[in-house]
């Protein structure tokens, strides 16, 4: 499953709390950074537990507990590898189409490829979305073939059990992902087709979003039926998945709306003009005591006289060991202005958003000829959108 869009919506709504996905780095493959969301550990143990105590003992009775545990661990790890292969196929094809991919985050239901932009043509989107389920299907066929060989050649029951499981789970992944529920892969394929027919990206997304919500509600209904039929765990799972899908569809659409609303708006219209600045010679201790502890801001522009030289954020300070705060200065810690943390007042918000994401600061400085004009944070964007919505409602 894959929702390879930005998390702007989430970012904008969480602007006060500076929440990022709780994930950590696992390594990198083909130049893509692989991260694992903390929610994945929950899933990992749930799958491990289900396989070890339910699926394998049920299907292959008479083996030792140690064998079931070994089958469970290998099965869960290879399931994880299958998910990764699915996401890698999206990422590799996206990169081949000229879409920059930062990396892959595996989370509760699968993964997301973190891309900086969306496909530019319906054809590209069709292929990038479609290759994921095809990859899962290919893995399912491969595992099915191995299972068939194992049965005929007489491999151990434990081995055949794992290949059978992997064939089944990957087939389920392929089928689930080809359902036309945006933002699942199938929903993206569906959107690409609607996009090709209507020639309108936004309209196509709207249509696909409705598909995603309907599918989400259908899965919830199925979950309720199961729940009342006595299959409590299955029912709860389906309700959870359906709810997740319906809200992901809505969030993706909101994300697109926000982006298209902001697209052509110049930076100066959203910025908070002339924000408070700090000087580069402050120690971090002074900065914390005199600024961060007394203001609600998470970052300050750093200015030397009339010239802005950088930006310092609370996150940056938190990365420095506390005992060094008395000696280390703001200048030594800040992100310098040359580091792509500033935009011109007339710069379009579409570029500004990209810069905010690339710099990972969630804020940019607005400068003109080296002097500070303003600052744009996720909070400024959220407030601007809210104001626009309020005005729109009053005028309607
Ligand atoms: Zn996918």
From TrEMBL:
List this protein's GO terms for biological process. Answer: proteolysis
The main location class comes to membrane
Cofactors required: Zn(2+)
Task: Give the UniProt family note.
Answer: Belongs to the peptidase M50B family.
Where is this protein found?
Cell membrane
| Highest taxon, organism lineage | Bacteria
Q: List, in alphabetical order, the Gene Ontology terms for molecular function in this entry.
A: metal ion binding; metallopeptidase activity
Q: What is this protein called?
A: Zinc metalloprotease
Give residues annotated as binding Zn(2+). Answer: 86, 90, 185
Do you know which PANTHER family this protein is assigned to?
A: MEMBRANE-ASSOCIATED ZINC METALLOPROTEASE M50B, STAGE IV SPORULATION PROTEIN FB
* PROSITE patterns named in the record: CBS (PS51371)
Q: Name one GO cellular component term.
A: plasma membrane
List the Pfam families: CBS (PF00571), Peptidase_M50 (PF02163)
Q: Where is the active site?
A: 87
For this UniProt entry, which segments traverse the membrane? 38-60, 66-85, 126-149, 155-179, 214-245
Q: Which InterPro entries match?
A: CBS_dom, CBS_dom_sf, Peptidase_M50, UCP006404_Pept_M50_CBS
Query: Which organism was this protein described from?
Result: Chlorogloeopsis fritschii PCC 6912
Cofactor binding description: Binds 1 zinc ion per subunit.
Presence of the UniProt keyword Membrane in the record: yes
Q: How does it sit in the membrane?
A: Multi-pass membrane protein
Q: Which residues form the CBS domain?
A: 271-327, 334-391
* Keyword set, alphabetical order: CBS domain, Cell membrane, Hydrolase, Membrane, Metal-binding, Metalloprotease, Protease, Repeat, Transmembrane, Transmembrane helix, Zinc
């Amino acid at each position: 499953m894959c929702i390879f869009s930005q998390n702007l919506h989430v970012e904008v709504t969480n602007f006060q709390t500076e929440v990022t996905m709780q994930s950590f780095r696992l390594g990198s493959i083909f130049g893509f950074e692989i991260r694992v969301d903390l929610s994945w550990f929950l899933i990992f143990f749930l799958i491990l537990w289900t396989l070890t105590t339910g699926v394998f003992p049920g299907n292959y009775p008479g083996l030792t507990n140690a064998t079931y545990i070994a089958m469970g661990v290998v099965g869960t790890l290879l399931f994880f590898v299958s998910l990764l292969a699915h996401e890698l196929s999206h990422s590799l094809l996206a990169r081949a189409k000229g879409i920059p991919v930062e990396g892959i985050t595996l989370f509760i239901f699968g993964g997301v490829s973190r891309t900086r932009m969306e496909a530019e043509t319906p054809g590209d989107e069709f292929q990038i979305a479609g290759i994921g389920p095809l990859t899962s299907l290919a893995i399912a066929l491969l595992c099915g073939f191995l299972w068939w060989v194992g049965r005929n050649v007489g491999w151990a029951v434990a081995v055949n059990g794992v290949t059978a499981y992997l064939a089944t789970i990957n087939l389920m992944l392929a089928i689930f992902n080809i359902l036309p529920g945006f933002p699942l892969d199938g929903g993206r394929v569906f959107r690409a087709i609607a996009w090709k027919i209507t020639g309108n990206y936004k309209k196509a997304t709207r249509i696909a979003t409705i598909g995603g919500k309907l599918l989400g509600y259908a899965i919830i209904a199925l979950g309720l039926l199961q729940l009342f039929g006595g299959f409590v765990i299955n029912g709860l799972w389906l309700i959870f998945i359906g709810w997740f899908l319906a809200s992901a569809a809505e969030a993706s659409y909101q994300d697109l709306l926000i982006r298209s609303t902001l697209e052509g708006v110049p930076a100066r219209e959203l910025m908070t003009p002339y924000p408070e600045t700090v000087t580069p010679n402050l120690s971090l201790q002074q900065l914390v005591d005199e600024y961060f502890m007394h203001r609600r801001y998470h970052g300050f522009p750093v200015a030397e006289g009339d010239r802005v030289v950088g930006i310092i954020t609370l996150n940056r300070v938190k990365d420095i060991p506390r005992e060094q705060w008395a000696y280390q200065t703001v200048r030594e810690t800040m992100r310098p202005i040359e580091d792509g943390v500033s935009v011109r007042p007339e710069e379009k918000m579409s570029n500004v958003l990209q810069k905010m994401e690339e710099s990972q600061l969630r804020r940019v400085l607005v400068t003109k000829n080296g002097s500070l004009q303003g600052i744009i944070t996720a909070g400024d964007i959220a407030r601007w959108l809210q104001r626009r919505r309020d005005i729109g409602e009053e005028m309607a």
